[in-house]
Amino acid sequence: MNRFLFIIAMLVFSIKLSAQVQTDMYQYNIDLLNVREDKVQVTLLPPKNHLREGKFVIPRMVPGYYDALNLGQYISEFQAFNKKGTPIAVNRSDTNTWVIPDLEHIAAITYKVSGGWRHLLEHTPGAKSPESMFKKDSVSIINYSSVAGYFEEMPPRPYQVTIKKNRGFYASSALNYRQQNDTTDIVSAADYRRLVDAPVLYCVPDTTWTQVGNTKVLVSFYSKEHSSYSKVLAAKLKTILFHQQAYLGGRLPVDRYAFLIYHEKIPKGLLADGLEHNNSTVCLYGSATLDKLPEALIGVASHEFFHILTPLNIHAEEVQHFNFLNPVLSRHLWLYEGMTEYATIHMPVKQKMISIQAFLKTVEAKIKGMDGFDNTLSMTEMSTNAIKMQDQYMNFYQKGALIGLCLDIRLRELSNGKMGTQELMQKLIKKYGPEKAFKDADLFQVMTALTFPEIRRFFKDYVEEGQPIPLKESLQKVGLDYDDVQKTVTEMSNPSPGQISLRKAWINQ
Length: 509
Ligand SMILES: [Zn+2]
Fold this sequence. Notes:
Blueprint (H helix, E strand, L loop, with lengths): L25 E11 L2 E7 L7 E5 L17 E8 L4 E2 L2 E4 L2 E5 L4 E9 L2 H5 L11 E3 L3 E4 L7 E2 L7 E6 L5 E4 L4 E4 L2 E6 L2 H5 L3 E4 L3 E6 L2 E9 L6 H18 L8 E10 L5 E6 L3 E8 L5 H14 L1 H6 L3 H4 L12 H18 L5 H15 L8 H6 L14 H16 L6 H11 L11 H8 L3 H11 L6 H7 L2 E4 L4 E4 L5 H11 L2
Parallel strand pairs: 1-12, 18-19, 19-21
Antiparallel strand pairs: 1-2, 2-8, 3-7, 3-11, 4-5, 4-8, 6-7, 9-10, 10-16, 12-15, 13-16, 14-15, 17-18, 20-21, 22-23
Bound molecules: zinc ion.
The site of zinc ion has 5 residues, from α7.
């Protein structure tokens, strides 16, 4: 990585300091009224401290995205000022970090942040959705991981962000934005992790609130070409959320959830991208028309929404105390992504939204999809090495989901139909939850203790080691034939009563 030396001429100018008083919080000001060339001005009043020097960090990585993002690349014109408003020399040690001397006496840090979504929509290689976007007077999407930072030397502190915005613009987010006046909003977060976990969409509102059980769901939509579309999308989403709620035992484990959906007209093709957060999903759609949007949205949103189970309620310490510069990755991506994808394909058939034939087509697609990857690898090793093993990452959604299927059938078999992955996930939520992490090395033991001794062997063979997953054997138990040459799954013509009842317990059909 390049090393930059970023020195500011000391006597050129000084800054007029704001009237804000230094507290224990990070106090940010973001000015969306003065967006120039896709760049926004950001000011930070650091928390009170006694540090001789502070290392300011913008994330190299973010939770849920298993590749280096180097979000510091979007930061420019970084400056620090002392209490007299005089600029202080700052050393940019690499793309994502700045060393600031005499931090104790720093009264303001200013920089500009560029948006990155333009590149994403233009399919520029390397463009990633955790970036932000600023369009003067029309729309902004703030992903705080690319806008705000923290000091490595300080323990976690709360954040308060003041945002200048156009009159009539509304902030859609999982966090609660308080309006101070027509053009100023304020939002608070308990710490950095919670701030970056809640992106915000700013625009003239096209929003619909809907209630699913005890959960308030916000659907917020932006498109330059279309308005009043959020209610169409909310109606579609509501149907699937009701089924998800039933699938999860009648109660969703979140109070509030936000879908932030951005559409942009592109001449041809369809670009769909989603990134899960604990209480929201940002969806980006590039398409010529809106015809296929509801269906594509359901596809992305149902997977992302199931992340409220894991990692939100079930996660390792590595996720809870995520290191944004050099994270140690958890070994359980098979759980976070594989089990989430399994719930996404299992729920529609279990809830009788689709036929068994349609479900089996999805299973066949997963089996064929798995073929493009090295299936002899250990899924736990693929997880801790996810950054280096990018070419294998997508197999968590193929083989990972099929591991979920085999595990579900095995659990149903061992419990006489009473317990499957749905019940296992509920037990894990009860044991852990959003604020209580599991020890990465202990999870298989815990899951075994919550289920059956035989399950430890299952994890050893198919998750820790790369043994061929028992598809034929598992499907046979529920009266399905798997042809491993043609890669087809079909219903047996004369299933036994035992096979019929196990299938009923598994998929309710
Ligand atoms: Zn996912």
